[in-house]
TrEMBL record:
This is N-acetyltransferase domain-containing protein. It comes from the Bacteria. Residues 10-162 form the N-acetyltransferase domain. It holds the Pfam family Acetyltransf_1. InterPro entries: Acyl_CoA_acyltransferase, GNAT_dom.
Amino acid sequence: MLLTLPALTVLIRPITPEDKPLLSAGLRMLSPETAMRRFLSPKVSFSAAELRYLTEVDQVDHVALVAVDALHGGLVAVARSVRVSEDTAELAIVVGDPWQRMGLGRRMIELLAERANVDKFSGTMLATNRGAVKLLRGFGTHVDRDVIEGGVREIVVQLPSRAMAGAPMV
Ligand SMILES: CC(C)(COP(=O)(O)OP(=O)(O)OC[C@H]1O[C@@H](n2cnc3c(N)ncnc32)[C@H](O)[C@@H]1OP(=O)(O)O)[C@@H](O)C(=O)NCCC(=O)NCCS
């Protein structure tokens, strides 16, 4: 699907195994702060095994979407949900620094929730990460868990109804 942000139109689509170079280039473009918030540790490159894990996904229990610049093809955002139990998937998302706070993160987790076929998203983030806390808590219809331990915050929220599950991405 195409989404128009201020000054940018992005194409949001499922990730593919061919996206390995795109992911590596995207990581190099992130500020150290954004990379730290996403990976909870300093991250400057992916190993071959990490790239396989991140791009060779089944789109059933591991759903991953990329947002790319519709004009130039550069990576703008990545969002994924990985099932961790029957009803819960772990959410991980990053929006490139220039495009944060434009509504893209919210739109990407809406699309993930439609496809993940779970009732809850869990998220693990730095306790200081106000954007991620607001995004996840704001998306859930109910907060099941919200705990801070050792500087890390874990939040579990109930998702809006599964009525759209399996909707085609048009
Ligand atoms: C967290 C992140 C994914 C949010 O994506 P985004 O596209 O900037 O978020 P949105 O524009 O959709 O905003 C969603 C909500 O969060 C709020 N928000 C976003 N960034 C914020 C920030 N830095 N401080 C406070 N609130 C913030 C927005 O105001 C919005 O709130 P609203 O619904 O009340 O208007 C993005 O900032 C990011 O990639 N951060 C680095 C990686 C990361 O933290 N990942 C999450 C841990 S896995």
